[in-house]
């Protein structure tokens, strides 16, 4: 046995071959590597599945629709590894009405401009709602290209979002991170997310509908409680318009009363909107010249894209989508309720919104019916009193005055002194004049009243008093109720309201006086304040409308400084025949 050298190292034991040839060992290594790859895929799939479940829980944790849509887009981008994502909401016209984006800053989004309309590649998913995946969207034959300031995009994955078998919108993902295109696994997991998103969207929509229904029912209950007490038409209509605008989250609401004899609509109440819209109060619009007259006469709602094209308004009235609902009971059309959104508002109302609005409009019509019944009863009481007073004046007062005049006339020749006879004759003349005045009063009392114009004037003054903090002085002169024709009354009340509104908003006055006079074949409205005054040459908006209302009836409108300070507004038109 040979001795080992001092620096020699012991040899390592040979690796056991396990009876495998070199070729078999290579094959075993490949199988082991494949098994490790499969294990890695299983682990990755499990992690993505857990991420999908977390995303489903996240998007279903909020019942606000807008927040839910934003979470869906964010979750889709995270699951598929996309840099950019968007969810396009498809409207009834098969166009995109909303576009929720992720991955693009608000500044870039603002520079891009308007939303896409759903054409080109985006429109493919609308026309054919099935998953769409491509390595480069710019090379597709239907690609429209991108607008200026839009970030470059190539890889693309689109998946439809269905709600109860109806297309709600589409998920658009772009720019796969870490790869040139999206994979089959990406498509499958986004399809699964879209299915869960449909359920979350439906829940959010049902919650939003329940919330809107609760608000409409509360407004309807308020109108119902109004029916239980004393109803004033102006107050009832103002409440209807205000609640309808608030609950519908609209920009403008109008109440138009229908006149079946003249077949016209009169703008009775304006709530919200700008100065041009508020100046419409009192405007008379022929029903035949409106786009909604035929529909509401048949008891149907009408939808318009812009109120500017719905009727020949005297002032510019440009809005967004608007709903016109009839205010009708049984076979009687009282008017219409108009609810309009702003020019940049949402799309038209849904069927659910229309049903809720219909119920509210029905209650509003009942309020109008009750108000009209109360006004008619009050009018009958007034007419009875007027007839009684007229009869007493004719049968008692005039007869006594006439008898007194005859006695004075018989005594006058007996007077020795000429000045005494002259004074007796003057007294007889005064009695004659008094009898004529009383007979004129009797005629006024027995003249049928089509409407209490004096009441409307007083109501307008009372409304202004609430904003001014004091009650304006009011002077009514002449036979206002009987002499002012029906076609002139809406313009007169509109002029008075606009004049008082200007005094409230601009005058900063301590005193306001209103005078409405009927004299010498004309009716005039004069509103004077002691405020800061205004430049007549700078009149615009509502004041221009007042001038137009005067010129339409062959009248005149002036705006001049008052003495010692303030402004005097004078509007006068002839009464006609």
Description:
- With 577 residues, the chain is an alpha+beta fold.
- It has 4 domains: 43-206, Beta-Lactamase; 213-365, Beta-Lactamase (2-Layer Sandwich), CATH 3.30.450; 376-446; 453-574, Histidine kinase-like ATPase, C-terminal domain (Heat Shock Protein 90).
- The chain is 48% helix and 20% strand.
- The chain is built from 14 helices and 16 strands.
- The strands form 3 sheets. Strands 8-7-6-11-10-9 form a 6-stranded antiparallel β-sheet.
- β13 and β14 (522-529) form a beta hairpin.
- α9 (351-411) packs antiparallel against α10.
- Residues 1-8 have low confidence and may be disordered.
Summarize the structure.
This protein is an alpha+beta fold. Helices cover 48% and strands 20% of the residues.
Whole-number radius of gyration?
Answer: 40 Å
Q: Helical segment tally?
A: 14
User: Which CATH C-level class of the largest domain is it?
Assistant: Alpha Beta
Return the domain count: 4
Using the coordinates shown, work out and report the CATH topology of the largest domain. Answer: Beta-Lactamase
Class by SSE composition:
alpha+beta
- The helix/strand series, from N terminus to C terminus, equals HHEEHHEEEHHEEHEHEEEHHHEHHEEHEE
Q: Point out poorly predicted stretches.
A: 1-8
CATH architecture of the largest domain: 2-Layer Sandwich
Keywords: Kinase, Transferase, Two-component regulatory system
Protein name: GAF domain-containing sensor histidine kinase
Domain GAF: 64-211, 232-378
GO molecular function: kinase activity
């Amino acid at each position: 046995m040979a001795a080992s050298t001092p620096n020699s190292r012991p040899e390592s034991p040979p690796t056991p071959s396990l009876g495998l040839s070199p070729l078999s060992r290579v094959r075993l290594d490949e199988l082991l590597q494949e098994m490790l790859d499969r294990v890695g895929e299983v682990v990755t799939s499990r992690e993505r599945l857990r991420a999908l479940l977390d995303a489903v829980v996240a998007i279903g944790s909020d019942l606000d629709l807008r927040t839910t849509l934003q979470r869906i887009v964010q979750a889709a981008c995270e699951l598929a590894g996309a840099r950019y994502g968007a969810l396009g909401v498809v409207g009834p016209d098969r166009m995109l009405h909303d576009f929720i984006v992720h991955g693009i800053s608000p500044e870039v989004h603002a520079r891009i401009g308007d939303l896409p309309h759903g054409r080109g590649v985006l429109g493919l998913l609308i026309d054919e709602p099935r998953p769409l995946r491509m390595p480069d969207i710019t090379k597709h034959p239907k690609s429209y290209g991108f607008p200026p300031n839009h970030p470059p995009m190539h890889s693309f994955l689109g998946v439809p979002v269905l709600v109860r078998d109806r297309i709600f919108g589409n998920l658009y993902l772009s720019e796969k991170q870490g790869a040139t295109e999206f994979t089959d696994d990406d498509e499958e997991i986004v399809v699964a997310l879209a299915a869960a998103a449909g359920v979350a969207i439906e829940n959010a929509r049902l919650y939003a509908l329940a919330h809107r229904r609760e608000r409409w029912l509360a407004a309807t209950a308020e109108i119902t409680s109004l029916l239980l007490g004393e109803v004033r038409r102006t107050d009832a209509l103002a409440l209807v318009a205000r609640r309808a605008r608030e609950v519908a989250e609209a920009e403008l609401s109008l109440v138009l009363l229908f006149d079946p004899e003249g077949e016209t609509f009169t703008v009775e109440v304006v709530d919200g909107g700008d100065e041009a819209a508020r100046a419409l109060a009192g405007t008379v619009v022929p029903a035949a010249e409106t786009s909604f007259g035929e529909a509401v006469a048949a008891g149907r709602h009408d939808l318009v894209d812009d109120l500017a094209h719905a009727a020949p308004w005297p002032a510019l009235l440009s809005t967004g989508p608007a709903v016109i609902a009839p205010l009708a009971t049984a076979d009687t059309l009282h008017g219409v309720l108009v609810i309009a959104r702003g020019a940049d508002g949402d799309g038209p109302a849904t069927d659910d919104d229309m049903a809720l609005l219909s119920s509210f409009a029905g209650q509003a019509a009942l309020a109008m019916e009750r108000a009209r019944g109360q006004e008619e009863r009050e009018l009958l009481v007034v007419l009875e009193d007027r007839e009684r007073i007229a009869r007493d004046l004719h049968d008692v007062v005039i007869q006594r005055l006439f008898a007194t005049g005859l006695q004075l006339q018989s005594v006058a020749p007996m007077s020795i002194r000429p000045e005494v006879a002259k004074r007796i004759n003057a007294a007889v003349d005064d009695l004659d004049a008094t009898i004529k005045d009383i007979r004129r009063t009797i005629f006024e009392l027995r003249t049928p009243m089509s409407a209490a114009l004096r009441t409307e004037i007083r109501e307008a003054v009372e409304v202004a008093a609430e904003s001014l903090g004091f009650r304006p002085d009011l002077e009514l002169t002449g036979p206002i109720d009987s002499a002012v024709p029906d076609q002139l009354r809406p313009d007169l009340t509109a002029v008075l309201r606009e004049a008082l509104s200007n005094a409230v908003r601009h005058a900063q006055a301590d005193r306001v006086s209103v005078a409405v006079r009927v004299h010498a074949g004309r009716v005039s409205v004069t509103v004077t304040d002691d405020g800061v005054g205004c430049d007549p040459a700078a009149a615009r908006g509502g004041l221009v409308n007042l001038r137009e209302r005067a010129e339409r009836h062959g009248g005149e409108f002036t705006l001049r400084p008052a003495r010692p300070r303030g402004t005097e507004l004078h509007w006068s038109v002839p009464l006609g025949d």
